[in-house]
Amino acid sequence: MKQSQMLIPTLKETPADAEIASHRLLLRAGFIRQNASGIYSYLPLGLRVLQKIEKIIREEMNRTGAQELLMPAIQPAELWHETGRWDVYGPELMRLKDRHNRDFALGATHEELITSNVRDELNSYKKLPMTLYQIQTKYRDEKRPRFGLLRGREFIMKDAYSFHADQEDLDKQYQIMYDAYTKVFERCGLEFRAVIADSGAMGGKDTHEFQALASVGEDLIAYSDSSDYAANIEMAEVITADERPNVDMLPLTEGKDNGQRTGLKYVCFKANEKLVVVYVREDDEINDVKVKNVLEADMIEVLSDQERAETGFDPFQSDSETIILADNGVKNVVNGTLHVEETNKDYINVNPERDLGVSVYHDLRFIKEGDPSPDGKGRIKFARGIEVGQIFKLGTKYSESMNAVFLDENGRSRPLIMGCYGIGVSRTLSAVAEQCHDENGLIWPVSVAPFELHIIAVNAKNEEQMTLADRLYEKYSARYEVLLDDRKERAGVKFAESDLIGCPLRITVGKKATDGVVELKVRKTGEVIECSVDELDHVISAHLND
Amino acid sequence: MKQSQMLIPTLKETPADAEIASHRLLLRAGFIRQNASGIYSYLPLGLRVLQKIEKIIREEMNRTGAQELLMPAIQPAELWHETGRWDVYGPELMRLKDRHNRDFALGATHEELITSNVRDELNSYKKLPMTLYQIQTKYRDEKRPRFGLLRGREFIMKDAYSFHADQEDLDKQYQIMYDAYTKVFERCGLEFRAVIADSGAMGGKDTHEFQALASVGEDLIAYSDSSDYAANIEMAEVITADERPNVDMLPLTEGKDNGQRTGLKYVCFKANEKLVVVYVREDDEINDVKVKNVLEADMIEVLSDQERAETGFDPFQSDSETIILADNGVKNVVNGTLHVEETNKDYINVNPERDLGVSVYHDLRFIKEGDPSPDGKGRIKFARGIEVGQIFKLGTKYSESMNAVFLDENGRSRPLIMGCYGIGVSRTLSAVAEQCHDENGLIWPVSVAPFELHIIAVNAKNEEQMTLADRLYEKYSARYEVLLDDRKERAGVKFAESDLIGCPLRITVGKKATDGVVELKVRKTGEVIECSVDELDHVISAHLND
């Protein structure tokens, strides 16, 4: 492609609201353009990268035997009523009415739609298993769209859904998809971890997130320094040794601690219309997700100060309606301290079971760096990640509510067992950009680069240089994707924009064109190789196949 | 692909609301599934055809030098306010509000968005011309969605936009796109005509529709029996010879005609808040589009009986506020007749200029079969068509209202001159199905067939047959797209479904498998060729490359 004919609106200034490198560079290098908050156009360079990622995903999905289909973005509300999600899904679900005043959603996800598509068809165990996927545009009205394509309101996802006759078969497919996802992200050149995750509003149990490591990531990952254990911080299990000190309980007393006792603290939640009080050690943090999971609640809310005051809660006099939970770490506290917010009083020699009505302990706190890894191997470290994929074992949540059943081998009607598997396609593009850049611009891995070769004539007015550049462009376009900078710009501008765009290899045709000598620059390492036109074939293929 | 693993939900019954063959067969053969009125899923077979059409379009667009990009479906209302189309576009434009109560449209078309994307960038004649296209999902809330993918509410379009410094350059690009569209539809195997059309709400002047010929088409095309002249019936020019009879005007009289005089009739419209009365000969029909164009009005409305009564209009006493128009054919009427609806009276010896205040004649009627072709060659015939593409010379309608300007060679600021070019991608799929089928099912052209070869083992329980079928499947999958019917269904079911799905070639592996002999059936002609496995290569390639 000739650069003079392409729409590549590079920006000299850094856009004001672009907080992170990928957002900044994708805008500056003319890959994307914002049309509204969280809503973007993919300009020709951006679309080329996107299509390469899509191709990798298609290849790996097809290899698993999954079949591609394409469902609509507009979904009738009736389907969402069947699963109850019309009411549960908050303002993130974009809704609209048609001219007949009927309700529709813009699909944030497609469980309802795929289930409605197969429910009459996959009616026998003989037709199972089946896995279907699509690469399609999704909508989520994010409260705070940000970071460019990382958290947008209109974005591209690959979503897959599998249907099974039994759990074992789902487990098998889950592993196949896990492996396929690993290949996809490896091929995209991402550094990532598959981490144990929370299934959130999706339902189901087992789930892994694929997290591209990046300091700007919104997710915190806990991983072992000695094994491949990794979990979203929300889900990382905390192993608490039984280390209850063998001392006598002293009488509960109002008063300040002398600094030797272990502090306790508590947080009040509302869940299923009940008051829930959770105790942890003062230097630990309560993990809402774990609390929610222990309570088997769909949602829990921390009480505001006012709501809290209204409950009239007293730790030492809690009524039987109140649910008292305590973290495993609390179990080891004898004669601890407690500050009671409601009365602004401090107590010492607090013993959880005797004084606070605690009867059962759970893992309810966030893991910390240095904690032992839950798999017993090594210690926990933290890293930040961008969630680029997630796989779920959904089970029968959707098939039961939508009556998607099949006849098993014994002629009994049973709900389909489902898995679902997502990749944020546009988000993967951003994650690659976030991992692969330097201060001068983007550095695309060969597999997803918009062009593999960037040919620049230093002086476009010099006939010899342009002739050689044209000749190389013609020659290599047959084998590679080549961008030719044929613009009559200053060499400095061309070089700077070439670094900004970030194709893996650059061929610079300069003064030595007369002697048939050009420069090859490797964008990633900065290495510059002077070589004759005859040697080019070899040098290029060595680098692009590396 | 093995059929046992594919989602192909064929239907034995014809869906009740499917009025036309393509809709019926695409549903019955499991290519698409309806999710809501005018909203469909493309199942694996349907998506394969769709992707092939998309590939053809991409190849032909890229060949013209157009660059692909991808714009969002959700568009901020502000852009539509800039062009005024937010208010002009009726209920067909789907609208929604985000969580902050801001207005958005689901793109029915992307003139506003593309113009906003380029308006700061294409700021110099040096950067022109440029053509950009996308293949993307569009939304139109049709009053009466019908005919499956032909008139849907969510559908896939290829839309392209070109930007030019002068009209001559636009004219050049228009011809390039005209030629590219011709290639696209030829490659898709469509029988079509490029017809002169009305630019409607899009603005601009020159425009052609590409109409796939089909008896169920919603558009009526007038074409010459002796030249390549073709026009949408709305736009077909009527040539009226000057044949005014040389007789004296007789006095206007109330009374019934004896059957020898030429009848006149009139219709009352409202346009720009004025009463417009249009006269034509009794056996002609008024063409609203022509009336609208003569008036240079955005919209005209036929008055209801009540509205008409309220005007108090009297043909013989019209006031100066009323606009009187007459068709060219009226000019030749001397001593005609007129029935006045308002008073229910009949008149004879009506002379338009003398009695009706007619002073000027225009081409205002629909063309009829048998009329002379406007290009002077032959006579007009009618055909019905499905509009699969349209190309427009937009001019500066959008660039002016959105202030998209460039500096010309003399440093003067001028609005960009635009063209726009659409292909209904999903509609093309339907149009091919509508043209290519028989009573047994679909008959896909090789270029867009979901699979090129369909291999069937007559008896899947017969080991010899299955082994040979498998072997052929493996062998030809390396060269062609092959569907293997490995299901344990009765042979009759397999044959019927194979005809329904409509792959170009079918290889039937039956009893003669023992002797290495199979049957090849050509779907289109029904021809059956018995041949040895050794001869297959040759026979297949002869048919698929035909």
UniProtKB/TrEMBL annotation, chains A, B:
<comment type="subunit">
    <text>Homodimer.</text>
</comment>
<dbReference type="InterPro" id="IPR002314">
    <property type="entry name" value="aa-tRNA-synt_IIb"/>
</dbReference>
<keyword id="KW-0963">Cytoplasm</keyword>
<dbReference type="InterPro" id="IPR004154">
    <property type="entry name" value="Anticodon-bd"/>
</dbReference>
<keyword id="KW-0067">ATP-binding</keyword>
<dbReference type="Pfam" id="PF00587">
    <property type="entry name" value="tRNA-synt_2b"/>
</dbReference>
<dbReference type="GO" id="GO:0004827">
    <property type="term" value="F:proline-tRNA ligase activity"/>
</dbReference>
<feature type="domain" description="Aminoacyl-transfer RNA synthetases class-II family profile">
    <location>
        <begin position="38"/>
        <end position="445"/>
    </location>
</feature>
<dbReference type="InterPro" id="IPR004500">
    <property type="entry name" value="Pro-tRNA-synth_IIa_bac-type"/>
</dbReference>
<dbReference type="InterPro" id="IPR023717">
    <property type="entry name" value="Pro-tRNA-Synthase_IIa_type1"/>
</dbReference>
<keyword id="KW-0547">Nucleotide-binding</keyword>
<dbReference type="InterPro" id="IPR006195">
    <property type="entry name" value="aa-tRNA-synth_II"/>
</dbReference>
<comment type="similarity">
    <text>Belongs to the class-II aminoacyl-tRNA synthetase family. ProS type 1 subfamily.</text>
</comment>
<keyword id="KW-0030">Aminoacyl-tRNA synthetase</keyword>
<comment type="function">
    <text>Catalyzes the attachment of proline to tRNA(Pro) in a two-step reaction: proline is first activated by ATP to form Pro-AMP and then transferred to the acceptor end of tRNA(Pro). As ProRS can inadvertently accommodate and process non-cognate amino acids such as alanine and cysteine, to avoid such errors it has two additional distinct editing activities against alanine. One activity is designated as 'pretransfer' editing and involves the tRNA(Pro)-independent hydrolysis of activated Ala-AMP.</text>
</comment>
<keyword id="KW-0436">Ligase</keyword>
<dbReference type="InterPro" id="IPR050062">
    <property type="entry name" value="Pro-tRNA_synthetase"/>
</dbReference>
<dbReference type="InterPro" id="IPR036754">
    <property type="entry name" value="YbaK/aa-tRNA-synt-asso_dom_sf"/>
</dbReference>
<protein>
    <recommendedName>
        <fullName>Proline--tRNA ligase</fullName>
        <ecNumber>6.1.1.15</ecNumber>
    </recommendedName>
</protein>
<dbReference type="InterPro" id="IPR044140">
    <property type="entry name" value="ProRS_anticodon_short"/>
</dbReference>
<dbReference type="InterPro" id="IPR002316">
    <property type="entry name" value="Pro-tRNA-ligase_IIa"/>
</dbReference>
<dbReference type="InterPro" id="IPR045864">
    <property type="entry name" value="aa-tRNA-synth_II/BPL/LPL"/>
</dbReference>
<dbReference type="Pfam" id="PF03129">
    <property type="entry name" value="HGTP_anticodon"/>
</dbReference>
<dbReference type="InterPro" id="IPR033730">
    <property type="entry name" value="ProRS_core_prok"/>
</dbReference>
<dbReference type="InterPro" id="IPR036621">
    <property type="entry name" value="Anticodon-bd_dom_sf"/>
</dbReference>
<keyword id="KW-0648">Protein biosynthesis</keyword>
